[in-house]
Amino acid sequence: xxxxxxxxxxxxxxxxxxxxxxxxxxxxxxxxxxxxxxxxxxxxxxxxxxxxxxxxxxxxxxxxxxxxxxxxxxxxxxxxxxxxxxxxxx
Length: 90
Known about the structure:
Blueprint: H1 15-37, H2 39-55, H3 57-73, H4 78-89
């Protein structure tokens, strides 16, 4: 049996391993800043999207399912996606 008095080994993380996380975080922050800065453009695209959903319901449902699958595969929280899709389809 191992003794519990042994110190835990701490794995050192290289900065190279942090690059993908830093790029994704920077990209997400950039998108959020652009959406806040150009709020009217975001609303305009949202209205175009809802019109497209009303014109092409079956195609939009298949894209919605694909988006949910993408969210599950890449472990993106799907609650945001479901709320956005629910608002769009209402």
